[in-house]
Amino acid sequence: MARKIVVTSGKGGVGKTTVTANLGVQLARRGARVIVCDLDFGLNNIDVVLGMENLATYDIVDAIEGRCRPRQALVRHPRYPALSVLSSGHDPDRYISPQAVRLILDSLAPQFDYILIDSPAGIEEGFHRAVAAAEEAILVTTPHISAMRDADKVSGMLKNYRLKGVGLAVNLVRGDMMKRGEILSPREISDMLRLPLLAVIPEEDRIFLDNVAEGSRAFRFFASYYLSGKSRIFDAEKKYGGLIGSILGGLKRRL
Ligand SMILES: Nc1ncnc2c1ncn2[C@@H]1O[C@H](COP(=O)(O)OP(=O)(O)OP(=O)(O)O)[C@@H](O)[C@H]1O
Ligand SMILES: [Mg+2]
Question: For 11, which of 54, 133, 150, 199 could close a Cys bridge (C-beta 3.0–4.6 Å)?
């Protein structure tokens, strides 16, 4: 039976979709059967991030309204067949109830190991719909004050739901800035928000899905946490240690 995990944040643009897509890819690469479910109605961009634009014939609204069976609304990733995408509808104004979404996900859950739910920015109806469909949550923040403040607010709101676990993923971490004490470390952020730290994801220039970028290691660690229960956190500061590190740090500052 799939674990249903919502990826949420409060503040927009902190990396929910990036985290959902990359965690989905790394879980699927390790053989887990994964659905990445886009509940950002209207924007619907996880298929784009996964390089699967225009592959879907149906979306979750079609499944809810009976135009297709839930399984027919899934699209398999061309490169990672264990990964399927469930797109949201393209009409942000159409009312879709949390119960309807939950029903669809529950009907798919027996054939999968993980259902990752990408939620929209904000704390309105779309947030409620995404969180209500899940049993666990990943709260994404960045080391920026505004993101942390919103994460704190959302963390309080998540207490109103019956979630089995809520953990923190700190995205857009710059090891060089951490080293210089210019930003809080992910550990400090996790202490401050009183949430267990599940993942640290470095700020990177290239997208992660290619598995070459350093950030994909952060997502491999993150996937291991779910697959084995052992948490291994990416060390964003490591490459800025020693002589090479000081040079890298100096270069980055000049850029
Ligand atoms: N670790 C990272 N390093 C570099 N760029 C990143 C990283 N994480 C996310 N980004 C970039 O930041 C932008 C916002 O990320 P993303 O779309 O995942 O955020 P989001 O929280 O889903 O946004 P929204 O609230 O609008 O749905 C994207 O352009 C994405 O490529
Ligand atoms: Mg998004």
Answer: 150
